[in-house]
Amino acid sequence: MTTGNAGSTGAKGARRSAPFVHRTDLWITIIILVACAALWFETTRWDTVAAQLSQNVPPTFFPRIILGCIMAMSLYLPFENHFKKKKGADLDEERSNKVVSITFITALALVLIVTLFEWLGTDLSMVLACLLLPILWNERRLWVILPFAILFPLTVRLIFVNGLKVHFLPGLLAPILG
């Protein structure tokens, strides 16, 4: 994928430096910022929560933190190629490789987990993600996967539910979690 931004060699073999703003990455940044702005706007249309259920933070708080972080990090993208070229890395060359199929399989697996989220609940969705993704990525050591799939969701639950008082959807575990 060449956009005319990659450094090239001149008649004497000298390398030109990369342009300060990479056009392809600029367009990607614009798309990310527009999508995040649309999602941010969507959070302004959410209903307010009664004071008894507010859990000390409005429901828009965490989504907006994530969107803000994504927007802030995306602002670096158009300039990344320039800084990497200075260090000798060529991102355009690395990007010319075809996207491997596991990327699409991972995306489909995550869409499946999100689709099942309300039914499974937060805890089982985390466990499923922690089991499924390492196996998709060819991790075969069950003695590594199983503790991770149990301890990571448990730690997240303890921090958010017990520590920060955030409500998790119980899903299938509603009879057990009460």
What does the model show?
The protein is mainly α and 178 residues long. The protein has two domains: 1-97, no CATH class; 98-178, no CATH class. It is built from eight helices and no strands. Helix 1 (23-44) packs antiparallel against helix 2 (61-74) and helix 1 packs antiparallel against helix 3 (77-86). The chain is globular, with a radius of gyration of 22 Å. It starts with 22 loop residues before the first helix and ends with a helix. Mean pLDDT is 81; it is low at 1-14.
Summed up:
The chain is mainly alpha-helical and 178 residues long. The chain has helices at 23-44, 61-74, 77-86, 91-95, 101-120, 122-136, 142-163, 174-177. The chain has two domains: 1-97, no CATH class; 98-178, no CATH class.
Topology:
Elements: H1 23-44, H2 61-74, H3 77-86, H4 91-95, H5 101-120, H6 122-136, H7 142-163, H8 174-177
Helix pairs in contact: 1-2, 1-3, 5-6, 6-7
Mean pLDDT: 81
Biggest sheet layout: none
**Uncertain stretches:** 1-14
Strand share of the residues?
Answer: under 5%
Radius of gyration: 22 Å
Number of DSSP strands?
Answer: 0
Q: Which geometry do the CA atoms define?
A: globular
- As a percent range, the share of helical residues equals 55-70%
Total number of domains: 2
Structural class: mainly alpha
Q: Kindly, what is the distance between the CA atoms of the first and last residues, rounded to a whole number of angstroms? A: 54 Å
Short key terms for the protein model shown above:
8 helices, disordered N terminus, single chain, 178 residues, mainly alpha, globular, 2 domains
